[in-house]
Design goal:
67% of the residues lie in helices and 0% in strands. By secondary structure, the chain is an all-alpha fold. The radius of gyration is 18 Å and the shape is globular. The termini are far apart.
């Protein structure tokens, strides 16, 4: 008798547990508002739950989720005709207060994130997927529909802008 592997758990609860935070972060990166990011996150997760076609593996599923979320965000931004601006102070506060020695790191992370959020969308998208989600440039190119060279150029320009914006704030952002 042939060996049968168990089908992966595709329950809605598991899919939401596995992807809600990721999708919400991706959406917030584009939309900069918690409410809009939550709306697109919900739509993306519904598409995932309703999808009947199997994925080639966990990496394919994860890339598909990010691509659907990013495309939905781009469509929303296009339909508005303008990119809304919202300060990071409107983002939800962390549930647990950071330890005193972590406060400096938290302030630094917030400053870096704030600088990333001021980047133009293509550069912000590349930085988020590369540095926050760990995707190589080749996979980012597939996700965003750009060439590998274009993604590398976006990252290079983003690093130059961030280096200028953060210079003087920290000793470890060299010129």
């Amino acid at each position: 008798m042939p060996h049968r592997t168990a089908a992966p758990d595709r329950s809605p609860e598991k899919l939401v547990r596995d992807y809600a935070d990721l999708v919400l972060r991706v959406c917030y990166t584009y939309l900069r508002t918690t409410a809009d990011a939550e709306d697109v996150c919900q739509d993306t997760l519904l598409k995932l739950i309703c999808r009947e076609e199997p994925f080639n593996g966990p990496d394919h599923e994860r890339a598909w989720v990010i691509r659907v979320a990013s495309n939905a965000c781009k469509n929303l931004l296009r339909s508005r005709g303008a990119h809304p601006e919202v300060g990071l102070s409107s983002a939800p506060e962390p549930e647990a207060a950071p330890e005193p020695d972590e406060e400096a790191l938290a302030r630094r992370d917030e400053r870096v994130l704030e600088a990333v959020m001021t980047l133009p969308l293509p550069q912000r998208e590349a930085v988020y997927l590369h540095y926050y989600e760990g995707y190589p440039t080749r996979e980012i190119a597939l996700i965003v529909g750009a060439s590998d060279d274009a993604v590398r150029q976006r990252l290079s320009r983003a690093r130059a802008i961030l280096r200028d914006n953060l210079k003087g704030d920290y000793d470890d952002f060299p010129a």
